[in-house]
Amino acid sequence: MSEFKVNENLTITLNEGVFGLWNLETGEQYEIFERRYLDRIFELNELVGMPYTSKPEDGILIEAEILLIGEKAEQYQNTQKANGPWGWDPISKIFHLGSKHNFPSDLTNTEENNEIGYVNFCESIAESAPNLDIEREGELIKLPPWNINAIDTYSLKKALWERTTSRNFNGESVPLEIVSNILFTTFGKIHGDSHKKNLAERGISTVGYRRSSPSAGCLQATEAYLIALNVSNLERGIYHYRSHQHVLTKLDSGINADLTQILCHQNFAVEAAFLIVMSSRFDKLWWKYPHSRAYRSALMDVGHLSQTFNLVATAHKLNTWLTGYFIDNLLNELIKIDGFNEHSLFVLAGGHGLQDPLSPGVAKLLKALK
What we know:
oxidoreductase activity, Bacteriocin_Proc_Enz, Nitroreductase, 14 helices, Nitroreductase-like, 16 strands, 370 residues, Nitroreductase domain-containing protein
């Protein structure tokens, strides 16, 4: 009797009435049309540790590497023991394995031009390209023009060395001119249409544009929403930044929500002069990158932009703070996005205060405990 094991690195889905099974180890996906296969997986899981007895369904389960027999079962268990327990919840493991690139065809050597497939793919999706210039409805607010002198004399080394995370803001206002500079330098279309024109001269049509930070596929899937808490010459409220026009769209006058609750009671954040919520337009990424791996790209994009924001805000002598700790649905509601095609990923803060990684509340508590 051979030893057997059920591969635990799989997930079962229900989509549009069809049950699917995803082997997260190999990346292979299967449709399940007969319940007996699900029943057999359940039965095998109940029988682990007992002698293996074959059933008709097992051939397909073995081929899909869901049921592991003999040497494969032993290898699987040895790998599990060597790796140890996964440190997060199962959802994170599904994301980790499900966003891996597992296609062995990309490892084969061929004399064919490897770029042909990429060019053909780009041509096949060209007609369905999404609109990258996002324009929310609402009152348009003109922003001051970008002032190059604001950061031209501030060296990169100085910005890198002086950048720090601060949780001690004093609530003082920040001029709109500075916020405008930060928005344009971080999220703006700083090169205009030069990228598109340069490629057009080479016979290439592109839907993307360049910011000061790299972006997956040049799609600029990250949108910026300004929460103006105390910005001089700008009404307190919620705004969307139109990257391609360098203007704000007012989404809400005032802030009709409890920001401290939305930010999981990180109370010090409301003393910043402004917050910037970064969302990702998943629908842009879906167009060019239909595999779940592209979710990684969305996360990396906001990481690039976060560091650019840090350096630019530091050059304007502001304190900065970043967080990914918030109530997702409440933050999505605040900036009026659906949370499906577009979702909040990260929050930036800028303002005046002390350069202290400890919030006033934590500092006071620690002092009292001494």
